[in-house]
Amino acid sequence: MGREARSAKLCVGPVLFHWPAEKKLEFYTRLATAPVDVVYLGEVVCSKRIPLFENHHQDIARLLKEAGKKVVFSTLAEVMTQYDRQVVARICAMHDELIEANDAAALYHLSGRPHAIGPFLNVYNEDSLEFLAGKGALHATLPNELPRAAIAMLGRKAQNLGMGLEVQVYGRMPLALSARCYHARAHGRAKDNCRFVCGQDPDGMDLTTMEGVPFLSINGIQTLSHACLNLIREMPALAGMGVTHFRLSPHTGDIVETARLFRAVLDGELATTEATTRLAALAPAPFANGFYHQREGYKWAEAG
Amino acid sequence: MMNSAENNFPARLQYLPLSLLAPLPLFTLQPLLQRVITHLSRRRPELFARFGAHTRKTFLIDPLNLPFVFLLRLDPRRPQLLARRREHPMAHDARIAGTFLTFLDMVDGRLDGDALFFNRDLVIEGDTEAVVCLRNAIDDMEGSVADDVADFFGLPGRAALFVLRRIKRNSGELR
Amino acid sequence: MVRPELVCPAGTPAALRAAVDAGADAVYCGFQNATNARNFAGLNFTLREMQEGVTYAHERGARVLLAVNTFPPAGQTPAWKQAIEDGVRLGVDAIIVADIGVARHVACAYPQQRLHLSVQAGASSPEAIRYYCREFGVKRVVLPRILTVPEIKAIHDEIPCEIEAFIFGNIGMMAEGRCSLTNYATGVSTNMDGVCSPAHAVRYEEDTRRNLTARLGVFTIDRFSCGEQAGYPTICKGRYCAAGRKSPYYAFEEPVSLNLSSLLPDLMRAGVSALKIEGRQRSRAYVHAVVSAYRKAVDDCLAGRPPLLPDLLALTEGHRETRGAFGGRRWR
Asked: Do A89 and C127 lie within an 8 Å CB cutoff?
């Protein structure tokens, strides 16, 4: 395994799903012991969930920092209501923290000072990356639908700009956002009256086709893939292209064990085939890596 | 404004094309069709410009109330329009089925293909992209393709088209 | 009340002329490639057709808005820059962009060129809109179809640019510019390739009892029984199964079209400068019918008459209309 892979950083993205506060606290407490370098905190999907956990953020951030992790605060991917706007403005006002912008509303506040660009903000090309770097972006996480060729060019650009570049390598892939809550709709409710029914599905609510083929997964206003992204085999190549950070997106499967497998592969201590076999026992669904290989996103290209 | 004679047009005349064309032997129709498509391709070269990669595709045009189907190939060098008895269809890339009058309104640019499909008046099978491309190409041809075809047949052709359109207008009202 | 611009779709030169003739104040269109978000087979304009279209529109007092509103993947930005150069040279009245890099290119290379922010940029808050105005001098924002009329009014009061709002046509359920559902199922990206549910991946099958199955790639999107109204084979209008639901249901939205004719006066009072009709993929018959109807309705509003509500139901998906998010919060 190459030098780039060994020096690559492992990150844990924000929890996308609505977990009870106790479960989240337990998750972050365990995470403090995991071999990860960066942890993203904050609600990115639904602002209605924010008041239910917000008061724990500072404690968790302290715990993680004491454990040697870097903490980044993520912002909402969809900003629409007065409340959404207030939340984004409040997070962006934390001048001592690194903030991840997932929407142009956050960019409005963050431009001109150091910040990070999240995967929900569209950075598809070198021109966008360069512009954002000029406005203070130190780091960018790419949209997961980008194919290898585009990632490679962005990797070179990021190196030239001295930016950190991150790619999601594990977890269900965010595919779409909406103003409408599909969890509430499935239960015959409106978003304003959802009663947090999304909490019933800690890894998302599965949608299958009329023929019973697993297809998508619902998380409130967000639609994710049914399949679980796994780029563990592609990580060394990605590191060689200039990708410096690899993101694991949280699921109910043990995060510490998941992180250990990815770290071991980056460090050249574990073969990718063995790691994939072990990961399968932790993952919420079968694997996919189609986007990277410029195929249908649900597809899984076996080694070879 | 329609006059009273038009308003009283009998509904059963909707099936006029069938009654007119059913007894016609295909061998008399075939050379005519080939000349129609050759005429059309000379008169409307823009049709092919929008056709890109689909010039080699064969469309089965299936007018549901006629005893035969058409095979259409919009290859600019050798455009083809063949009639076949429905019992003996040929290999094709895509099939488009609807009533003869629906097709007439579509090539006239008076009906929206998507709306016909939503309403289940149009059936599409096979290579959907080729069908969409054909639809877009025909839709970009201003004036009426049907008029062009009718012109080809001279006065009898234009008269026939007038009758067909009047039937269509009435059947539309009766529906 | 300010006279709003009626902005109409032009998928082909014939549709452009149909729209202008039916009373469009402006038409929007794109070139025949991935630089615009309706990159469908047989649709859009060659360079020469665009030139003729601009001439036709300008001679009749209508404006031409060029959509360059997709996201070029790294390494492919030259095609987008070419589309912009061509548009500027042909004298289009505005360029509609979504990508930050593309916006920056227009702002730097052609500072005099009027710039509109596409709905694909998904700018749904005053801060997001102000960001694009501040950084790139955007003059108009096309709002996502997720806002209520009071929310649009509130945005209007807080931004320094014009608002363009959709009033008719396909209703996108997902936040525009942030949907990779099509790519997940077909390997073709809406954001990068400009196609939602590409026709090459769509298959229709009708059985002997006239039940119609619509598939996208390997996934069944919907099944319509005989006589049931059909819709586009888009993932967000499909029927699926979920635990706890006895039968397949429309998990996102039913096949339905947006029609805001009843909200026209409200939208105009909310400060909307431009009213947009969706449908570059539709026929000139559709363009003619919808543009004519809305021309009359807008003129009625301006004259203080109640707008004559046009019957456009026959042209809508699923033969059903909705006011969508514009009608109120319960839609969410």
From this structure: yes
Question: Of A127, A290, A298, which is closest to C104 when you measure between CB atoms?
Answer: A127
| Chain C residues lying within 8 Å of A185, measured CB to CB | 251-252
Q: Which domains does chain C have, with CATH numbers?
A: 5-171+256-331 (3.20.20.70), 181-250 (no CATH)
Q: Mind listing the pLDDT tens digit for each residue in A224-237?
A: 999 999 999 999 99
What is d(CA B152, CA B150) in angstroms, rounded to the nearest whole number? Answer: 5
CB C69 within 8 A of CB C141: no
Longest dimension (CA), chain C: 60
C200, B128: Cβ pair inside 8 Å? Answer: yes
Structural domains of chain B ordered from first start: 4-174 (3.30.1050.10)
The answer for residues whose C-beta is within 8 angstroms of residue C210's C-beta and 6 or more apart is B120, C225, C226, C227
Residues of chain A with pLDDT under 50: 304
In this complex, is the C-beta atom of C187 within 8 Å of any C-beta atom belonging to chain A? Answer: yes
The answer to the question of residue A259 being in a domain is yes
Indicate the pairing of strand A222-230 with strand A214-219. Answer: antiparallel
Q: Which residues contact residue B169 at a Cβ distance below 8 angstroms, ignoring those fewer than 6 apart? A: B2, B6
Contacts of C199 in chain B (CB under 8 A): 128-129, 131-133
- pLDDT > 90 in chain A, percent: 95
Closest of A117, A112, A73 to residue A94, by C-alpha: A73
Domain that holds residue A147: 3-172+228-288
Would you call C209 an interface residue with chain A, using a CB distance cutoff of 8 Å? no
In a domain, A209, yes or no: no
Do strands A164-177 and A222-230 pair parallel, antiparallel, or not at all (unpaired)? antiparallel
C-alpha to C-alpha distance for A251 and A173, rounded to whole angstroms: 12
Residue B14 has pLDDT above 70, yes or no: no
Number of independent structural domains in chain A: 1
Q: Which residue of B has its CA nearest to C232?
A: B118
Please give the pLDDT value at position B1.
32
Query: What would you report as the CA-atom Rg of chain C, rounded to the nearest whole angstrom?
Result: 19
Alpha carbon of A269: minimum distance to chain C alpha carbons (Å)? 32
What per-residue confidence (pLDDT) applies to C194? 97
Between C183, C239, C252, which is nearest A291 by CB? C183
Q: Using CA atoms, how far apart are residues C89 and C84, in angstroms rounded to an integer?
A: 8
Per-residue pLDDT at B89: 67
C314 contact residues in B (CB cutoff 8 A)? 115, 119
| C219-224 vs C212-216, strand pairing mode | antiparallel
pLDDT tens-digit profile, chain C (332 residues): 789 999 999 999 999 999 999 999 999 999 999 999 999 988 999 999 999 999 999 999 999 999 999 999 999 999 999 999 999 999 999 999 999 999 999 999 999 999 999 999 999 999 999 999 999 999 999 999 888 899 899 999 999 999 999 999 987 779 999 999 999 999 999 999 999 999 999 999 999 999 999 999 999 999 999 988 888 889 999 999 999 899 999 999 888 888 888 889 999 999 999 999 999 999 998 999 999 999 999 999 999 888 876 677 777 776 677 887 777 777 77
Asked whether at least 3 C-beta pairs link B and A within 8 Å, the reply is no
One-letter amino acid at C164 equals: E
CA A62 to chain centre: 21
Q: CB within 8 A of A282, min separation 6: which ones?
A: A251, A253, A254, A257, A258
Give the closest of C123, C219, C330 to A215, CB-based.
C219
